[in-house]
Write a structure and sequence with these properties.
With about 475 residues, the chain is an alpha/beta fold. It folds into 3 domains: about 90 residues; about 200 residues, no CATH class; about 170 residues, Rossmann fold, CATH 3.40.50.1220. About 60% of the residues lie in helices and about 5% in strands. The strands form 2 sheets. Strands 5-4-3-6-7-8 form a 6-stranded parallel β-sheet. The protein has a two-stranded antiparallel sheet with strand order 1-2. Helix 4 runs parallel beside helix 9. The protein is globular and about 80 Å long. It starts with a helix and ends with a helix. About 40% of the residues are buried.
Length: about 475
């Protein structure tokens, strides 16, 4: 009797712990919506995960028996914690998108491995009673496919973001991907409708399904153009969440289910919002033709005009409204702190300074928000591009720092451009344009930018960090 009471109490404590962990997940996610509370929200969500792990190790029972191999589990957790901590501490802000892709891929791989490990253990009694067509088997197969696609796709995204893998642009690729996707669905239906007496008879089919899912994950991401990678990262993140939720269904684990649903739904919502902001179709993302590529047909005509640091400082100091457009080049130079110092100097001179944040500036969702938050730029100064565009004609100076594609007029003027239709920051409508770049190199989409040849544009060449420092010195001297 005491054993039964102890067992029931253990189950109750475990379930309560999962509920508390789920609440902490939700609170943490809510707090991530604002830069001022994001750090605390991240810690709260991490505490929820820690609670779920500890409770599982202490109170989980299977057929009345506690979890075994605790030593191995703790050793694996310790190794993973140390490796993850070291990688995260050493990674530069410019490599944050690669880190996100890598960690997301590990989550997908974990979900896929769970399915591969669990399929041979499908209850024979369950199969004999209801066949393979049951929710347990479906959760395993979906977790396997979605987790594998997320893992393979994230690794390709990592390589593309790191410059190690190029784009694979073939006209027939969307049909190839659709064919593979149909084959995956067919495999799942075939496995679930087979009449078998033991799950071992289908192991070889599950391994084939795993291999096909890897191929699809690779080919799904390969055609995607560089300017569109933030949307794909968001989509892959949602895949990992859904795969984790399948594991929650599989183990009847409320914390795992809640965490997976939160990640999956948040990633999906973010993907849809970014697609709208980019004027893209979500269907095109799924079938792997998102972003395309190719050189614009617009020819670079005219000559560029340079501006000295002194003249740029004078122009900025005597303006009423200044808008700064941050881009990946600002992150590369690690110049966000100097950029904020400049805007504070201009504010002291009575200049209104805002930052125009494009949804896909940088190489992952929210890259510029995170970058500027690190430099303690007030959140109120960050304005989304669609909100700030109407005020562009009233802007005295717009300063483009390391951004390219997000201010490229080809998105509105050149129907043959791979970024045509993408909303941009309408920098060309400002009264004066200063573009800070190291040279005349093309952006991530690898196309020419006619903004550089605009009559109102002045190029300020040099590394963003050193140029901003020189500009700060000149503004102080005025």
């Amino acid at each position: 009797m005491n054993d039964v009471s102890h067992f029931s109490a253990g189950i109750s404590v475990l379930e309560i712990s999962y509920i508390l962990a789920s609440v902490l997940f939700i609170l943490g996610l809510k707090m991530l919506s604002h830069p001022l509370s994001a750090r605390r929200g991240n810690l709260i969500a991490a505490a929820g995960m820690g609670l779920a792990i500890v409770a599982t190790l202490l109170f989980h029972r299977k057929e009345g028996e506690p979890i075994g191999n605790i030593g191995w589990i703790l050793a694996a957790m310790a190794a993973g914690t140390v490796i993850g901590w070291m990688i995260a501490k050493k990674v530069k802000m410019t490599a944050m998108p690669q880190l996100v892709s890598f960690f997301n891929g590990m989550g997908g791989a974990a979900a896929a491995l769970i399915s591969l490990m669990e399929f041979p253990h499908v209850s024979q009694e369950l199969m004999m009673k209801s066949g393979m067509a049951n929710g347990h088997v479906l959760a395993i197969l979906l977790g396997l496919v979605i987790g594998t696609v997320s893992w393979a796709g994230s690794m390709i995204a990592f390589g593309k973001l790191d410059g190690r893998i190029g784009d694979l642009r073939v006209r027939a690729m969307k049909y190839v991907n659709l064919t593979i996707l149909a084959a995956i669905i067919g495999f799942i239906v075939f496995i679930m409708t087979r009449e078998v007496t033991a799950s071992a008879e289908l192991i070889h089919l599950v391994i084939i399904l795993f291999g096909v899912a890897i191929i699809y994950g690779v080919l799904f991401v390969m055609p995607i153009g560089g300017a569109d990678m933030p949307v794909v990262i968001s989509l892959l993140n949602s895949f990992t969440g859904v795969a984790a939720a399948m594991g929650g269904f599989l183990y009847n684990n409320q914390a795992m289910l809640t965490g997976g649903i939160l990640v999956g739904s948040a990633g999906t919502i973010l993907t849809v919002l970014m697609c709208r902001a980019m004027n893209r179709s979500l269907l095109n993302v799924i079938i792997g033709v998102f972003g395309g590529g190719g050189a614009t047909t617009a020819t670079a005509a005219g000559s560029i005009k340079e501006v000295s640091v002194t003249d740029a400082a004078v122009l900025l100091s005597y303006s009423k409204k200044v808008v700064i457009v941050p881009g990946y080049g600002l992150a590369v130079a690690q110049a966000q702190h100097l950029c904020h110092e400049l805007d504070k100097l201009l504010d002291e001179k009575g200049v209104e300074v805002k930052y125009a944040i494009h949804p896909v500036a940088g190489r992952m969702p929210g890259h510029m928000n995170v970058l500027l938050a690190e430099a303690d730029v007030p959140y109120e100064q960050l304005v989304e591009s669609d909100e700030i565009n109407p005020d562009m004609p009233n802007t005295d100076v717009i300063v483009v720092i390391g951004a390219n594609d997000v201010v490229n007029p080809a998105a509105e003027d050149d129907t043959s451009s791979p970024i045509y239709g993408m909303p941009i920051v309408r920098a060309r409508e400002a009264k004066n344009i200063i573009v800070m770049k190291r040279g005349m190199g093309k952006g991530y989409a690898a196309i020419d930018n006619m903004l550089f040849f605009n009559d109102k544009t002045r190029m300020l060449f040099g590394d963003a960090k050193s140029t901003l420092q020189a500009l700060i010195n000149e503004v102080k001297a005025l």
